[in-house]
Amino acid sequence: MDPEFQRLLLHSALEGHELSEMFFEKFILRVYGLLGAYIAERQRDGAMIKIDPAIVIRAFIGMIIHHSLNNNLWDPNRRLLKISNQEAAKQFTDILLNGISTSDATKSVKSPGRNGRKTAVNGASRKK
To answer: Does residue 13 lie within any of the structural domains?
Structure first.
């Protein structure tokens, strides 16, 4: 994202300027609507797990925005990650759609489930 445009958006949002609301209505709502409809369709087809499409969209856009903020604010020389924005988007898409763990690793990784119970990530086993 262009640093000047990013600065303008952040400033307008922080100051409650009408530009922020315009951006939300003309861009953010449209992105969520279009991508949300596509994700819901793919979920009906069985190609994606059932999860609120807005969560998926927020996760993906979050990766992109964080990448942009790092490049524009904290790491303009790209000391941490030297890849093009196109390659970053490709990698983020792969992470979103395929995850980062192998199927064997997924079985052994534990995460807190409901009420603090330990649950295998893929739901195969549960400890109560």
So the answer is: yes
